[in-house]
Design goal:
The chain is mostly helical. It has one domain. The chain has three helices and no strands. It starts with a helix and ends in a 9-residue tail after the last helix.
């Protein structure tokens, strides 16, 4: 007895609907994670450029104050103030670097998870009736 055309075409379809839906969801997740990465990198770049500018301004300020210093104790005081501020900045930059690294690791882990999700599950075979 011959099967109805609609049933035969559904079972002989080379791409089962479940597999297509799974691939679509995986691609959507991948694009979402990549979008997050694309949004994160420019923000990090702007942050680090502002840190570099702050360091440049601090160094410029040091040079101006050292040039204006009239004695060795005054120069030592200027340098001590600069060193204290520079250490504060370094501590803040270190905290920010760790936080930024964590953001990148999180995004990377999500990308890896999306990639592994596709490999961890074998493709769904079409049901044979």
């Amino acid at each position: 007895m011959e099967q109805p055309t609609a049933t035969r075409s559904a079972t002989l379809s080379p791409f089962p609907v479940d597999l297509v839906d799974m691939g679509k969801k995986r691609l959507e997740t991948l694009f979402e994670v990549q979008s997050k990465l694309v949004d994160t990198l420019p923000a990090l770049s702007r942050e680090w450029m502002s840190y570099a500018q702050a360091e440049q301004e601090l160094s410029s300020d040091l040079l101006a104050k050292l040039s204006a210093a009239r004695s060795l104790p005054e120069s030592a005081k200027v340098y001590q103030e600069w060193l204290s501020r520079r250490m504060e900045m370094l501590a803040e930059e270190t905290r920010r670097l760790l936080a930024d690294t964590q953001k990148l690791v999180d995004v990377g882990a999500r990308l890896f998870a999306v990639d592994m999700a596709g490999r961890a599950e074998p493709p769904v075979a079409p049901e044979v009736h």
